[in-house]
Amino acid sequence: MTDRPATNPSKAHAIVTEVRRRIVEREWRQGDRIPDEVELAVEFGVARATVNKALQLLAEEGLLDRKRRAGTHVTVNPARKATLTIPIVREQIEGAGMAYSHRIIAQKHGPAPADIASRMAEAEGTMMIHLRTVHYGDDKPFQVEDRWINPKAAPGAEHVDFQRINPNEWLVRNFPWLRGDIAFSAENADARDARLLETRQGTALLILQRTTWNDQGAITSVRLAFHPGYSMVASP
Amino acid sequence: MTDRPATNPSKAHAIVTEVRRRIVEREWRQGDRIPDEVELAVEFGVARATVNKALQLLAEEGLLDRKRRAGTHVTVNPARKATLTIPIVREQIEGAGMAYSHRIIAQKHGPAPADIASRMAEAEGTMMIHLRTVHYGDDKPFQVEDRWINPKAAPGAEHVDFQRINPNEWLVRNFPWLRGDIAFSAENADARDARLLETRQGTALLILQRTTWNDQGAITSVRLAFHPGYSMVASP
DNA sequence: ATGCTGATTAAGTTTAGACATAGAACGAAG
DNA sequence: CTTCGTTCTATGTCTAAACTTAATCAGCAT
User: Does residue A216 fall inside a structural domain?
Assistant: First the structure.
C-alpha cells in the first residue's frame, strides 16, 4: 500500500488535493471544462500563480488537459504515469538490509558487436570495454550486469580497478548523463545467466536494458538481469 | 535513441539546460555547492523565482540536492528517475498501428482469495468480480489480464457488458484513482498463460501487477501478462 | 569537550501585476 | 459552404518584493 508523499502544507498543494478530490468523487467528470485560473484563484482566495502551479502539477500527472484559450479539461482517458527510481545497485542492496559484494566475471577490451554498436550509435567494431559483473546481497546473487563502456565518452575506464569499485558506481560518480534509454523485458535464463544467478536455465528473469549518453556520445550500454522472483516497484 | 522533449524556449528551461551542461561537463562536480539562487539570478539576468523553478526541476530529476540554509549541491550518487506511461491497452495497441480486439475468457462473482484480499486491504472472502481478458493486436494475443474488481469502490461493475467495453477502459473512464501500487516482475508462463498467449509453457513473461485506490478503498487489482518478447520503454 | 540558544542564511512559497502567445471563435470574402 | 484573416481569451511565463522556515553556525554556559 503506497501512501501519498507527506502532507505538504502549501496552498498550492491544498489546491492539488482538492481538485483531485473533485475529480475522484466525480464532481468534475472526464471531459468537463473546469473553472479557469482566475475563478479558482478567487474561490480559493489565492493568487493566480498559485492556482497555475497546482494545475500544472495535475496536468503533469495526467489528470488534466490544459490548452491556451480552450481552458482546462479533465483528461478523458488518463494514461497515468509511474516513476521508477533506479538507484545504485550497492545502495539498493544495502537499503534492503543485506551485505553488498560484487565479482567481476570477465573484463576485456574488444570490438563491439553489431547490436551493441548500433544501440550506442557507434561504428561496428569500435573498441570498447566489456564487463560482466555479478552483484550479491548477503552472498546471494542479486543481479548480473553485462556492460559495454565507450572509452570515447567515458575516458579513463581502461585503468580503473573494477574489483575495488563496481562499474555501475564508477560510471554514476564520474559520468553524469544527459539522456538515456531504458527498457524492461522478460527473458528465459540462458546457461550463463543461470550459472551466475545460481538458478536453473529457463527461469524467467526481469531484464533492464539501459544506454546512457553525454555530449560525447554513448557512455555505456548495459543489460541487467535480476535474480528470479525480483519485483521492481514503481511509485505513482 | 531518445531525444529531449522539445526545446522549450523559456528562460527557466535555458537555465535547466545550462546547469545540466555544467554538471555533465564537470564544471560543477558531484558534491560541489553551486552558487545560490540570488547569484545565479544575477548571472543569468533573471528573477530569483525563475532560477528557483529551474533548480527545483533539476532537484526533482535527481541531479541536485537542495536544503534550506545549506544551499544547493550536485547530487553525489544520483539515483536517476524514469517515467513509465501506462496507457489504456486499446490505445497502446492502436498506437502501434494494429487493430484492437479483446475477449472475455471468464467472468464471475465470488469471494476474493487471501492474497488478492490482502493486496486490496479487504477481508478474505469479500465478494468481488473476477475477470480474465485477453487483448489482441491484429488478432495476435498482446496481453492477458487477470482482474479483481471491488464493487464497494467501483459500484456498477456487476451490470457492465465487458464484451462491449473492456474492463481496463471502463474502469479508467469511470473510476479515477487517488493512488496505486505498481510492480514489475518476470514469470514463467503457466499452462493457462501459455494457452491464452499462444506460446509455450515456461516462456518468460513480463508481468505488471497493479492495485488502485480511491476514497472508498481498493478499486481493482490486476495482473497483466504481456506477450513473450514484449519490452516496456521508460522515458528518463 | 558537550550541550543549549539565538542569529543568520538560503531555499520555499506566495503575491500582484505584466506581457506573450496558442488557438478557438467569428466574420468577411471567395 | 469553405477559406482566410482578425479578434479575443485562458494559459504560459516572468518579475520584484515580501514573508516563512529549516538548518547551520557561532557564541555561551556547562
Answer: yes
Cβ under 8 Å to B: A residues 21-80: 21, 23-26, 30, 63, 76-80
Q: Residue window 190-219, chain B: list those with CB within 8 Å of chain A.
A: 202-207, 209, 213-215
The answer to whether position A54 is within a domain reads yes
d(CA B14, CA B207): 39
Run of H or E including A51: helix A48-61
Which CATH number do you get for residue A30?
1.10.10.10
In chain B the first and final C-alpha atoms are separated, in Å, by 12
Question: Is residue B220 assigned to a domain?
Answer: yes
> Does the structure show a pLDDT above 80 at A149?
yes
pLDDT tens, residue by residue, A151-188: 999 999 999 999 999 999 999 999 999 999 999 999 99
Q: Give the residues across from B222 on adjacent strands.
A: B147, B210
Q: HSE of B221 in the Cβ direction (CA atoms, 13 Å)? A: 19
Cα(B73)–Cα(B54) distance, integer angstroms? 14
- Write the pLDDT tens digit of every residue in A50-105: 999 999 999 999 999 999 999 999 999 888 899 999 999 999 999 999 999 999 99
Q: Residue B123 belongs to a domain with what CATH number?
A: 3.40.1410.10
Residue that finishes a domain, picked among B46, B74, B102 = B74
* Residue B67: domain span: 11-74
Confidence tier at A8 by pLDDT (50, 70, 90): confident
Contact between B129 and B107 under an 8 Å Cβ cutoff? The reply is yes
The crossing angle, in degrees rounded to 10, of helices B48-61 and B11-24 is 50
Same domain, B67 and B113: no
The whole-number Å distance from B92's CA to C23's C1' is 28
